[in-house]
Write a structure and sequence with these properties.
This protein is α/β, with parallel strands linked by helices. The protein has a domain of 99 residues. Helix content is 28%, strand content 31%. It is elongated and about 75 Å long.
Length: 156
């Protein structure tokens, strides 16, 4: 009889822990879009490293997330929809950039605020964008430039 009570209590403890983890995960990331935020859109040449759920940061502070990515069949650019917290006003001349945390770090979206006194309305498009920079392409340009300098040293 004592074994049955112990098993029931252990099972209840495991179930309570599982429910606690689900509640914590639901509050931390949110299973649905938060109602205290607004959407902005942007069109990028490349969103390499960005996925739905990626952080949107302003001055290094997370202010939103990427909620949708789609290829525009007309422009062949990546159309992104991001949410930004309602308490963050984004000037209408701001820039949105695909940034990296370093050589081995992940990518995120960064908003670089402009100086305009007018703010973007919910659903507006940030037109000044900068896509992802491929590290491999950048290194190949660097190596190519260095090798080009070494071969162009012939005397006139």
């Amino acid at each position: 009889m004592a074994e049955n009570i112990t098993e029931v209590l252990t099972g209840a403890g495991v179930l309570a822990a599982a429910v606690g983890f689900l509640v914590f995960a639901g509050n931390g990331e949110g299973f649905t879009r938060a109602t205290d935020s607004y959407e902005l859109t942007a069109s990028f040449r490349s969103v390499e490293g960005i996925t739905v759920g990626t952080d949107v940061r302003l001055a290094g502070v997370k202010v939103g997330t990427v909620t949708e990515l789609a290829l525009n069949p007309t422009t062949f650019f990546a159309d992104a929809t991001v949410t930004v917290r309602n308490d963050v006003a984004v000037p209408d001349d701001s820039t949105i950039v695909v940034a990296s945390e370093g050589l081995l770090g992940g990518a995120f979206i960064e908003i670089l605020p402009g100086g305009s006194p007018m703010d973007l309305e919910p659903g507006a498009e940030i037109e000044d964008t900068q896509g992802a920079v491929s590290m491999i392409a950048l290194m190949m340009k660097f190596v190519g430039a260095k090798s080009g300098e070494n071969t162009d040293t012939a005397a006139p």
